[in-house]
Amino acid sequence: METRRLSGPEQELIRESWQKVNSNPLQHGMILFTRLFDLEPDLLPLFQYNCRQFSSPQDCLSSPEFLDHIRKVMLVIDAAVTHVENLSSLEEYLTNLGKKHKAVGVKLSSFSTVGESLLYMLEQCLGSTFNVAMKEAWTQLYGAVVQAMSRGWNGE
To answer: Of the four, 77, 98, 113, 153, which is 20 to 30 A from 91 by CA?
Structure first.
């Protein structure tokens, strides 16, 4: 991955903060997706299960299938944190994940809103311990993940 490599202290900030957030991934993932739908409500129609269209974000957020999606997203974040010192080991997986998102109609531009939602969730969960250095470290990590996923849009 071509993004700047995270420093040792940045990696530690990410690991420490994620340890707190990952204690309840479903609850914290709900915060992330609630914020995502607030910021970009046009994403709601992309989530359909068994040909069922959700009438509202709350309808979607309470469906068992979507709760499973939240768990998967949180597992991807967990994998990025686990491999923070060697993100290139996730390159192929993340590129394929990008292809899957492209196939269901997700626009690459929507990932900036997902990033905003991730930072919002971290801030809500960590409170005053979420500082500028932590925000910058997470922004770098998320940027590297999106860069790898974007290769799925570009057919690399």
So the answer is: 113
Query: The tokens of 152 are what?
Result: 């799925």
Domain ranges of the chain: 8-152
User: Taking Cα atoms as reference points, which of 125, 144, 1, 123 lies closest to residue 76?
Assistant: 144
Residues 6+ apart with CB under 8 A from 70: 25, 26, 29, 30, 32, 33
Q: How far apart are CA 37 and CA 114, in angstroms?
A: 10
Measured from the Cβ of residue 9, the count of other Cβ atoms closer than 10 Å reads: 10
pLDDT digits (tens, 9 = 90+) for 24-60: 999 999 999 999 999 999 999 998 887 788 889 999 9
113-145 per-position pLDDT tens digit: 999 999 999 999 999 999 999 999 999 999 999
pLDDT score of 1: 40
| Cβ-Cβ contacts under 8 Å for 40 (sequence gap 6 or more) | 110, 113
Q: Which two tokens stand for residue 100?
A: 């899957």
Q: Cβ(30)–Cβ(61) under 8 Å?
A: yes
The CATH fold of domain 8-152: Globin-like (1.10.490)
